[in-house]
Amino acid sequence: MTKNQKTEELSELKKILIIGSGGRENSIAWALSKNPSIEQIYVCPGNGGTADFEKCICLNPKSKDEETIILECQRLQINLIIIGPEVPLAQGLANQLRQAGLTVFGPSKDGAQLEASKDWAKTLMIENNIPTAKHWTTHSQEEALDILRSFNQPLVIKADGLAAGKGVTVCETIDQSEDAIKEVFSGKFGTAGNKVILEEKIEGPEVSIFALCDGEKLIVLPPAQDHKRLLEGDKGPNTGGMGAYAPARLINQKELEELTELILIPTLEGLKKKKIKYVGVIYAGLMLTSSGPKVIEFNCRFGDPECQALMPLMGDEFASVLFACARGELEKAPKLTFNNGCSACIVAATKGYPDSPKKGDQIYINVESNPSLQVFHAGTAIDQFDNIITSGGRVLSVVAQGESFDKAFELAYKNLKKINFNGMHFRNDIGYQVRKISS
Ligand code: AMP
Ligand code: GLY
Question: Are strands 279-289 and 292-299 parallel, antiparallel or unpaired?
């Protein structure tokens, strides 16, 4: 095949639909909109910031079922659908869209088990010699308590299924581990708590690595670091993530290549052995322990807010690379280039997040216009008077790039202070690992 033919095929990409409503989807839409050959980007349902970006609009069909989405994709002649969140992936939305002949970036239901069942993911890791913490899985509370007693040490207790980031308890004491086991079986997590995973507690800095896969091959993105805890000093409850930065400096290029060989490639090969053609993101959350890197979780999608820090680093080829993955022909994609800068993302959350976020407050945004600065919306909506209001716990993020992390964070924090809504709070120490100057 000649170079021209390859280019022609990928140039068919004109219209994209992104499924989701968060900051991740907002940042993907923004990154794709920079590609001059893309004509239109729909985000379903999107949020109050979707239409801020050129070529981007919300798609809000009357019904959100798969059949309506398929009909809308056909009507709008969508070339590529990107599914952002884990829930529709785990429910098999990608399967249904593919069955209808649509081109999708995001794993089918079988591949999404990498995130949707921690037990399934653990088994895949063991089968493929992927380093991870020791674990025990059981359906029975009694058996779980017996395992805890015989181990006689605090353990990490995990509900097997999707629990919106709330199904993991890192316990300090045996009593706390016992309570966490009982909580999993209390029904609090619905069917996600049908099984419990008891995991050895490991220690070390955390870093996330990402691969874009076409089912056969993969390419690796710069690593990122998330800040999961609500409060400064990594205190307080776990959240979806209060900020992130990329590229994470904990690992250098050579180490990233080693981690690709040790973790990402064996994961894709393990999926292939199970006859799973995995098209989408493999996100591996790692802990760098004194006895080497270990996987603490897999996600089957871009991390949020990590994605928001990463998107400004992507070259314009990003859209073609996702399209090539979705078509199973990554070898035809142009080489994905990355901007050399440092990218910082700070999440602004509303009062009551993560337990009971307050909604409906007006948001005032008065940031400077700067190509190295983005405001990505997450829990925002537009009210009947055209005001932007809060509609979710993580409201928006300020993302900035600079030649150093100090410069990137300085720009981000300076502009975050030009945003205001009732109950707004954020961490002042995002990126403390890579900053010399604190805000
Ligand atoms: P997860 O939802 O699986 O990402 O877990 C949430 C957080 O719990 C992780 O980011 C880690 O900080 C912590 N964690 C998970 N598994 C372990 C483990 N085996 N040992 C220590 N900390 C863990
Ligand atoms: N920020 C963590 C996640 O997306 O799961």
Answer: antiparallel
- In testing the pocket of ligand 1, which one of 125, 136, 156, 235 has its CB within 8 Å of the most ligand atoms? 156
**Structure tokens belonging to residue 412:** 């981000």
pTM attached to this predicted model = 0.95
Span 265-274, mean pLDDT? 98
Residue with CA closest to ligand 2 atom 4:
303
Pick the atom of ligand 2 nearest to 241's CA: 1
- Are 42 and 393 in contact, with CB atoms under 8 Å apart? no
Residues with CB under 6 A from ligand 2: 226, 240-241, 299, 303-304, 306
CA of 432 to the centre of ligand 1 (A): 20
Is any ligand 1 atom within 6 A of the Cβ of residue 228? yes
Of residues 267, 308, 333, 313, the one with CA closest to residue 126:
267
Name the closest-CA residue to atom 5, ligand 2. Answer: 303
For residue range 85-118, list pLDDT tens digits in order: 999 999 999 999 999 999 999 999 999 999 999 9
Q: Which of 342, 306, 340 lies closest to 436 in space, CA to CA?
A: 342
Please, are residues 169 and 186 in contact by the beta-carbon 8 Å criterion?
no
> Residue 54 in 3-state DSSP?
coil
- Token pair for residue 434? 């890579």
Residue located nearest, by CA, to atom 15 of ligand 1: 296
Give residue-wise pLDDT tens across range 209-265: 999 999 999 999 999 999 999 999 999 988 889 999 999 988 999 999 999 999 999
Count of residues making up the chain: 439
Residue minimizing CA distance to atom 16 of ligand 1: 296
What is the secondary structure of 306-350 as a DSSP string?
A: HHHHHGGGB-TTHHHHHHHHHTT-GGGSPPPPB--SEEEEEEEE-
Ligand nearest to the CA of 310: 2
Local confidence band at 439 (pLDDT 50, 70, 90 cut-offs): low
CA distance 377 to 362: 14
Element (H, E) at 15: strand 15-20
Kind and range of the H or E run holding 144: helix 141-151
Tokens 């239109």 locate to 40
* Contact call for residues 72 and 18 (beta carbons, < 8 A): no
What is the Å distance from ligand 1's center to 219 Cα? Answer: 25
Q: pLDDT grade, residue 3 (50/70/90)?
A: very low
User: Is it the case that residue 399 has pLDDT exceeding 80?
Assistant: yes
The tens digit of pLDDT for each residue in 155-176 reads 999 989 998 877 888 889 999 8
